[in-house]
Amino acid sequence: MSYSVSPIGFVRSCFKEKFAIPRQPQLAPAARGVLELIPPFDQAHALDGLEQVSHVWLLFLFHQALEAEPRLRVRPPRLGGNRMVGVFATRSTHRPNGIGQSVVRLERIEPGRLHLSGIDLLDGTPVLDIKPYVPYADAVADARNGLANNTPELIAVRWTETSLEQARGEALRLKEPLQALIEQCLAQDPRPAYQAPAPERRYGTRLWDVEVRWHYPDPASITVVEVLRVEG
Ligand code: SAM
Fold first, then answer.
1. What is the CATH number of domain 156-229?
2. Which backbone phi and psi does 147 adopt, to 5 degrees?
3. In the chain, which segments carry CATH 2.40.30.70?
4. Is residue 125 lining ligand 1, measured as CB closer than 6 Å?
């Protein structure tokens, strides 16, 4: 038996590559994007009442991680990347139907467009549904998760004089909180937990239209070395 679903819209996101996207929403409040709705969901009456809601659940497709064969066990990066657990005990992108869910802040609504922040979604992510966050039902006071009970530890993020100047300049051009976005994303330490950082090794990702490059001068800190606009 199979069912088909189709997107109601697509996310235009600050994240142009998977690497360094936070592992969950809300970890980088400066991560912003726009959900562009497609007909007929772009009509005003589909969004009527949503202005009373601060956060929404997005159900979406991990369109860059879809696989023909379902995996039953996965290695979550949060567990060091070397421990296998059942796929249903994780929020891994490798899932039977490729469906993700994120609770994100609804900043403002324009016709056919929802401005969002705190996202953990790649640019172009197809969204299947939007549901309002319902505090009395969704916030579970005594919830526990032995595999992911604590918020991730943060790593110190430092700048060189040049990279900070570059980030501030690009932030002004983009009219986006780029410095905060870089600090919030890199503080999550995107490197796989099992990978020992060689100080000379450079890491990089693309946020908006800028390439951000950094390294680990020591295992406990990141230094941003370059923030450069890229074409295309
Ligand atoms: N909050 C969601 C959930 O729990 O279903 C996503 C959690 S998943 C661990 C987060 C990761 O998904 C991000 O770090 C990013 O690398 C990846 N990701 C985000 N959007 C994606 C997409 N459209 N396709 C594939 N991977 C994506």
1. 3.30.2310.20
2. -90, -20
3. 9-138
4. yes
pTM greater than the 0.85 cutoff: yes
The verdict on the CB of residue 101 being under 6 Å from ligand 1 is yes
Q: Kindly give, in sequence order, each residue whose CB lies less than 8 Å from that of residue 78, ignoring residues fewer than 6 positions away.
A: 23, 147, 148, 152, 193
* pLDDT tens digits along 33-88: 999 999 999 999 999 999 999 999 999 999 999 988 989 999 887 777 778 999 99
CATH fold of 9-138, please? Elongation Factor Tu (Ef-tu); domain 3 (2.40.30)
Output the six-digit token pair for 32.
């912003």
Q: From CA 25, how far away is CA 144, in angstroms rounded? A: 18
Contacts of 217 (CB under 8 A, 6+ apart): 199, 223
Which residue intervals of the chain bear CATH 3.30.2310.20? 156-229
CA of 95 to the centre of ligand 1 (A): 11
Protein residue with least CA distance to atom 17, ligand 1: 18
